[in-house]
Request: fold
Amino acid sequence: MKDYEVIIGLETHIQLNTVTKIFCSCKADSWEDEPNTNICPVCSGLPGVLPVLNEEAVRKGAALAAAMHAEINPESRFDRKNYFYPDLPKGYQITQFDQPIGKGGYLDLKMPDGQTRHVRIHKLHLEEDAGKTKIEHGTRLVDFNRCGVPLVEMVTEPDLRSGDEAAQYLIQLRQLLRWIGVSEADMERGHLRCDANVSIRERGSEVLNTKTEIKNVNSIDAVRQAIGEEAKRQIELVESGGIVKSYTLDWDADRGKLTMMRSKESEADYRYFRDPDLLPVILSDEEINAIVEALPELPMERRARFVEEYELSDYDAEILTNERSLSDYYEDAVRAYPGEAKTVANWIMNDLSRMLNDLGKTANQLVLKPAALAEIIQLVDEGKINAATGKSILKKVEQSGKNPAQIVLDEGLGLIADSDALRVQIEAILSASPDEVVNYKAGKESLLGWFVGQVMRASGGKADPKRTRELLIELLNK
Amino acid sequence: MKLVSISAFEIAQKVRGGELKASQVTQEALAQIRKVDGIPGSLLPYQVSAEEERKVHAFIQVTEEMALAQAKKVDEAVANGEDPGMLAGVPISIKDIFCVEGTTTTAASRFLENFEAPYTATSVQKLIDAGGVILGKVNLDEFTFGSSTESSAYQPSTNNPWNTEHVPGGSSGGSAASVAAEETALSLGTDTGGSIRQPAAFCGVVGLKPTYGRISRLGLIAFSSSLDCPGPISRDVRDAALMLQAMAGQDPKDSTSSVRPVGNYLQALEQDVRGLRIGLSPDYEAVYYPDLETGEIHREPIQKEVHDAVLRAAEVLAKAGAEIVENVPMPNTRYGIPVYFVVSRIEAASNLHRFDGVKYGYRTKSEVRNLEELYRRTRAEGFGPEPKLRILMGMYLSAAGYSSDYYQHALKVRAMIRRDFDRVFDPIGEFSLDAMLTPTTAATAFKRKDVFGDSLLMQYSDQMTVASNHAGVPAVTIPAGLDDGGLPIGIQLIGNDFCEDMILRIGRAFEQKTQDDAWRKVRPQALGGEVQA
Reply:
């Protein structure tokens, strides 16, 4: 068998998380709403209505363009894509054709093996979503709720080389969308939808062979599997002397199988032309600069900075830049903490993450603020409480909203570092254990640990271990 | 004087002043409709009686109850010492292309026979808010596609009140005829290539196409979105100014509506025309159209009486102190129709996509095997020949591979037409005109069925009007005499962007200077006037 490589391009539709639709004031997100409840004359295509552009959708689309390193077009336009389908009430979709909001751009994929894949963006434009249709008991039903929901369509160049890379692209894109706050990017809810174009060629060749398009690969696993299946099918076909034809395939996630939907031999003619109902979208230099400046530091950049600035391992930096609010939380805690950044990282990746999981919260929703976390870690560092107490205080602060030092005081959780108090306790234990004292003095120094344990037990864990040890040595050697 | 004959301005003045009841005006208007209009246009078969042949047939739907309720509200406001608005009690008919809640909006098409819009067009709402009384919906060419109103699916279509053997023009034929026949004081029309001005000229009334974007298009069922303009039809210039005043202004629901402040149009009428520069162009003396066989361009001089009326008007205005500038070149005027063929068809085909039988309007009654058949049958049965022609042509012209030849080219020529106007209106340019004076139509109203069926010839009758649609500039037609057959002649004043005040002011001056002309005493046939042999 020859050595083949798989050539993949992804077409994604990203639902922007605006409050209202792109051309009317209906609620944009209709998840779990009854069919046809978020509609109006405009989005249901009644005669005589006109679209009015939602500026928030433009701003979010432009922010995404900037985050993808694309150029934001100072003048973009809307066009009509004409076709008939029951879920398209106007009979045309308002989209951007030759003057889209974004030009160029790329996403650098960091693969688990450490390699980087540079994925160029071929197209990035704003458009309205269509509705949904389904057939029930032989009747076709239409739901217009989704009509007019703002989308960004983003298409990559054929720069991906495996199902894993395609999956990684979606993972990183999803992370980016949430990071910059333009989309909820929930694939299950259709906020991020994906079609994959797949072709194969002999490794080393530069030609692009006929591709097939796989529709509805709407989960990370689906992308990985469907591309794998399709690449395998194409390779087997070509190896057995067949020719890949331009098909549209449907991915059935339940059965893990591809089915052919239709041949794409004859491309539809959408008769694109400028929508005369909308003005050009003009963004001034100031507006574009404001959009770019309002972008947060992007996850890849922050990850590199964390390694550099906080001396975190690649692994830690990746975990701490996975999700924006956790990442911001970490950084805020580091700023409030005088010790090593790595210490804060450990607390967050272990105990705080566990608490977030248990509570089902994101970091920005915590009552326990980053400064409070920093304070708890400091109390442990200073020996005022032990690590176990520190961990228990995390939960107590979260539940009560009190500050950590106050909780330590109120509940008497502080370590007994006071020499006099400790001395009394230690002397009591020594006089109750004459045999052990004799043995120790006879040279069995390993008994020191046993004494420490006795003191700890007697103090209910509050004795400062370091101070206890010092005092024990002093008293035993008297 | 009969209430139906007096101007909107006077009606509003009297109603606001408590001298006249809106209900009384409304009742008289409804009575006049019953007297002269005949059976309403409908999809049902009808008997062609000699009597019905002489009726106007402007209305598709008379909204008597709604009108009386609106009138009552106006009267109550006056009784309570409130001001009901600048159109208090003024009867208004609405071209049936505007969505008005509580009425069916048919677009004169079988497709929308039972369509009731759940909202009201901004322009109509503003008329109602100003105290206007909506009498009903008037006939038009199907979806506004035509220049004679004959293509309406609702028959009988409207006749010309001056001579019922002639067409009223179109597509706002019902609007112009209802105003001319004194069934209403005002009518709301639309103008895409001349659809307000041509019927207004044919029916001897005033018709104004405002600057594109001056009046909101929301609620106007779109024909060609980049050209469509709602506008007033009235019996005199002052009434057109009044109606424009009520409707003009930005609409947040129409992105293409202008944010420019609205002028005071009535006040502008008080100024005279001394020192104003008014242009005459040789490019408005003939129409140009291609021979269908050879493609050769024919030049057909316009009707002599129409041309003479323009020259006479120029003299009147010169005498009033205006400066007449002759030989103003408008060289791209002749391309107006070919460009219109391309731009309007492409936009129309797309705008008509939504009529698919899925959501509202007509759906085929026959069994269909699949979606495609539902579309095909529904559209084949629901649309008349004129929309079908336009859809076919629009689809062809915008198809991949053709679009660059036709559409992109047409847009360039459209920009050249616009430059013609920019040049003559440039205040520091060679001409620095305040307005152009041209004929509105190449000829007076043609006979019914004479041109209908010849889509090309019908279209070329818009050559004098369409350039201002391409350029977006305002233009008004004003009655300027009668031809030998006793049919009205219209002259047109075209102004610079948002200079409605200027062309209305010149039009008003012309109207006043010719107040005593003999032709102004002649009454339309529908109002008892003699028809000349």
Remarks:
- The mean pLDDT of chain A is 91.
- The longest helix of chain A spans residues 220-239.
